[in-house]
Amino acid sequence: MAHASPVVVIAILTPAPGREDEVQAALIAAVAATHEQDAGCELYAAHRVTRGRPGFVVVEKWVDAPALSAHGTGPAFTALAAALDGLLAEPLDATLLEPLPAGSAEQGQL
Question: Where do runs of H (alpha helix) occur along 1-110?
Fold first, then answer.
């Protein structure tokens, strides 16, 4: 990459049985905190899976890798990690994506 480009993250959270409401509450708090506290956040949106494996997905977009890195050590994510302790059936699965813009600028990338 010749220049800084946005970083998109898809984070998948699989709650332990019976812990779905607690995971949802932690995510809702984390979304608000991330929006307020984390510079470089262009998108941080939590979703409940409605079809497929039960769980939650967080779609994130950061202006660049340093902004994502700062989020990972910042207070919003630190609080989320603490709130999720013991609530997940498996470790959080975060996949980093590099946009491949195509088509229209509005529809071809997040």
Answer: 20-37, 65-73, 75-84
Residue pLDDT tens, the chain, 110 long: 445 788 999 999 999 999 999 999 999 999 999 999 999 999 999 999 999 989 999 999 999 999 999 999 999 999 999 999 999 999 999 999 877 878 887 888 78
Nearest 10 degrees: Cα torsion 11, 80, 32, 52: 30
> Is residue 29 assigned to a domain?
yes
Q: What is the CATH number of the domain that holds 83?
A: 3.30.70
Q: Hey, is 95 helix, strand or coil? A: strand
